[in-house]
Amino acid sequence: MTKILAIPGSLRSGSSSNQVLKAALSMAPPNVSIEIYDGVGTLPHFNDESNAPEAIVAFRKKIKGADAVLICTPEYAFGVPGSLKNAIDWTVGSGEFVNKPVALVTASSQGEKGHAALLLILTAISARIVPDATLLISFVRAKLDASGNISDPKVVADIKRVLLALSIEVRN
Ligand SMILES: Cc1cc2nc3c(=O)[nH]c(=O)nc-3n(C[C@H](O)[C@H](O)[C@H](O)COP(=O)(O)O)c2cc1C
User: Contact at 8 Å (CB) between 35 and 6?
Assistant: First the structure.
């Protein structure tokens, strides 16, 4: 069984990013399981003077134990949401992302700049960005229905493609 850890960049449970991730749960290819990490908002601010607090040790363990990571995030102020960047900063020294297959889905109003910024950050931490597993969903709210289901068939197909590419990368 391939284990994917999904990390949302929005702390709001009903956010588009969380809705996309919830929808992705049912689109996983056979023998692929997706766990949504819901602790980003509880992680302390990064401080490289202190030993890693318990929540950070647990977060790092989750990444380490996953075969791949799927990040789904909005763009905030043309950049990466601070809480997501904070979570990533905690892994820079410990290296959990090094060579880890990573998919990036940016689900935002626009999103281009945040998407590019996060790809650069993932490069900085030596994550293995899977080319077929990057997806920018602009105008995301127009592509979800009132119940939070993805109403745009192209987005459904794109997310399936992302999950498939990520799982193939793990097997290679
Ligand atoms: C603080 C803040 C800053 C934002 N900045 C941007 C931005 O720079 N670019 C963008 O495309 N959307 C921006 N947005 C809108 C989000 O992308 C928006 O939340 C998006 O449509 C996803 O919806 P969600 O809130 O349901 O996740 C911002 C939203 C907030 C709350």
Answer: yes
